[in-house]
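Thread: quick sanity check before group meeting

JM: Hey all, I'm pulling together slides for Thursday and realized we never actually wrote out the predicted structure for the chain we discussed last week. Dropping the sequence here so it's in one place. If anyone has concerns about the input, flag it before I start.
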Amino acid sequence: MAQSEYYSNSKASAISLIIASLIVAASAGSFYDEMDLTFGGERAKILNGGQDLSLSLDQYSGSGFQSKNEYLFGRFDMQLKLVPGNSAGTVTTFYLSSQGAGHDEIDFEFLGNSTGNPYTIHTNVYSQGKGDKEQQFHLWFDPTAAFHTYTIVWNAQRIIFLIDNIPVRVFNNHEAAGVPFPKSQPMRVYASLWNADDWATQGGRVKTDWTKAPFTASYRKFNANANKVGPNSKSTSSENENQAWSTQGLDAAGRNRIRWVQNKHMIYNYCNDYSRFPNGLPVECTRSRFL
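JM (edit): ok, ran it. Output follows.
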């Protein structure tokens, strides 16, 4: 290859890499464009030109935000860095929810703890107003030391919860067995930081230490690869219907990873709570290994 041709190809490759990086960067929207601050006044702050968002909690109020758009199915990624130090009594959230009495909801909730004790990752799925499908985990890393990516994949077949792209939970669609599944109500993305010391930490035994306030959690790199739903309740993003998330499940590697998480890091599974369901476990508990 001639030297001039080599440099020409190298320059073209470099330009291609720059363009590719810009496309990737553009895929994570600005918080100014994607979110509305919903409560907490100055405790919720969009920073760095829309790239970062912080929520704070003090003894007077927590704070929160919600997506401008509603969605019906998709993949939702958010990077979080949780409240450091003594976070007992606090709850940081990232979840999807519709509105109304018979609402649907898909939850990541992060229950704080006293210094040196691990966060509890609380997951739940509501359909038609009914939840009671909790699983809880401890993490294999410190979620306050750096940002980590928390993901909800929601399609018509299943819901997958992932942490740093490692699946930790799957909730499958068992409507055929009479189990409601969220598939018809559009949902917004929500996030909040609030005080729940009546139940959040060790069943409410450890209270919030307000001398440590304000408590602050940080969010960044939100991305929704999802079907947006317009005012007429029809998808405005039909180009997403063939995206990988629309049929995403677990491959062999994913099944191995979720087994590892559930064997090593799960601390509560409603499908193992016989005292809570003395008349028999919920139907779905006998049908899927990875609920």
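AS: nice. The chain has three helices and 15 strands. The longest strand covers residues 215-229.
JM: adding both to the slides.
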